[in-house]
# Entry
Amino acid sequence: MIGVVGSGGDVTACLESLEATPGVEKAVRISAPYKFVSKEFRKERTVIKVGKAEIGGDEFITMAGPCSVESEKQIMETAEAVAAAGATILRGGAFKPRTSPYDFQGMAGDGLKLLAKAREATGLAVITEVMSDQDVSLVAEYADIMQVGARNMQNFALLKVLGRCGRPVMLKRGLSATIKELLMSAEYIVAHGNPQVMLCERGIRTFETATRNTCDISAVPVLNELTHLPVIIDPSHAVGKRSLVPAIAKAAVAVGADGMIVEVHPCPEKAVSDGAQSLTIEGFREMMQMLQGYQKLWKLERQSELAVA
Ligand code: PEP
Ligand code: MN
# Structure
């Protein structure tokens, strides 16, 4: 990609002469500072295939599982249950970004192995967080999707290495990041060679304390105007409280997100992290049932959009 700066006629003339140059397929004018991820660069949605799921396609995708992988029993039981309830991707953190250094930091490599075992048993694809550029190749051996946590959204060294990891990446919006900053971080990954990026709204910091974060639901239509990348909502980290999760999941479907990522635990009161916001298995089943009608509407809307395109 060649960037051309300037205004008015200069740029137009420059684009025309570039386009007339042998070997140039097309010259595209992109005014946004993020080029590859901009809708100006590519109109059609990016579709990311992992296992049975097509993220950005014509199904609303559900990723579900515990905040942290804790034991074989816990991850296997959760994986079987979320698969039976309609999830196609299993979440579970093996490297955990904890505010306190004294809190559980994750099972690391052993956790990754358990996730792979759960994938084998259920057919679910696996999404898990990578916290450091040094862990990228290890995590990529086990994960189908590499998760970049909110706290690492601007870890540019990590983003650059993820550009070469050969796996799709889910980039979570930073705690106080603007949408433009989120897109610029996505641009890092794509510019370094990896076009398979999805974005995740997981709530942002505001003055409000009734919820853990404030879910910026309008980020979905804003992002849909600005980028072709899929957008995922994380209702669990957005609200921080189990009873509020289904309402935000419903909003995610209604607002046209491509999918959601939800925390589920067989015994939330015993969870080593994020128990308060984790749905029980039964709660997850009920939520998935409640969402069925909304998901049908979602599908009709997406199909008519694809038909027009
Ligand atoms: C998580 O998904 O468990 C997590 C730590 O999320 P976030 O980076 O959005 O806080
Ligand atoms: Mn969590």
Summary: The chain has one domain: 48-308. The pocket of manganese (II) ion (ligand 2) is lined by residues 67, 237, 263, 273-274 (CB under 6 Å).
